[in-house]
Amino acid sequence: VIRCRAAVAWAPGKPLSVEEVEVAPAKAGEVRIKIVATGICCTDEHLLQGSFPDAEFPVIPGHEGAGIVESVGEGVTSVKPGDKVIPLCIPQCGECSFCLNPESNFCQKSHISEPQNLLPDKTSRFTCKGKQIHHFLWISTFAEYTVVPEYAVAKIDAAAPLDKVCLFGCGFSTGYGAAINTAKV
After folding, report:
1. 3-state SS of 160-176?
2. What is the CATH number of the domain that holds 74?
3. Structural domain of 76
4. Is the omega angle on the peptide bond into residue 58 within 30 degrees of 0, that is, cis?
5. DSSP 8-state assignment for residue 179
6. Where is each Alcohol dehydrogenase-like N-terminal domain found (predicted)?
7. pLDDT tens per residue, range 97-142
8. What is the pLDDT of residues 20-41, one digit of tens each?
9. DSSP string of 29-59, one letter each residue
């Protein structure tokens, strides 16, 4: 178990509180990441305002970030400790009918069809003051360490500057998609 700092939202409408949290080791098929950089998105603000009806509190927000793999659970093969990675708020399992369809980008295991307040095994890797803390979109980048499913992490080039590429997890891809697909720029 790693003890680290995290910004915890204890209840909707309340300010974030920086707390010492415990982050359990990665289980089978999971990756524990040391978050080096994170972005702040309006989606995080919506969470804090209570705009997500399925969100459970207390929760560690954050869904765009970049970091270094600290450890991996049994069976993880796509990344290893020391790899630079970006956690994915819209993961791709690579196996469901949506992932196998070139016209789709919403994995059936993503937040579109499966709540991401807990990891896929329906448990949390976070605790604080003896209480379970929920994940946000399986990522929770407002923590110094987090645990995500292997299919919700992308290995990136070792030379990539983490403070810049952290925005690829949401901000850049959303903005680029809006400019190209909606605004037709």
Report:
1. CCHHHHHHHHCHHHHHH
2. 3.90.180.10
3. 2-182
4. yes
5. I
6. 28-157
7. 888 988 877 787 776 656 678 898 999 999 999 999 999 988 999 9
8. 999 999 999 999 999 999 988 8
9. TEEEEEEEEE---HHHHHHHHT--TT--SSB
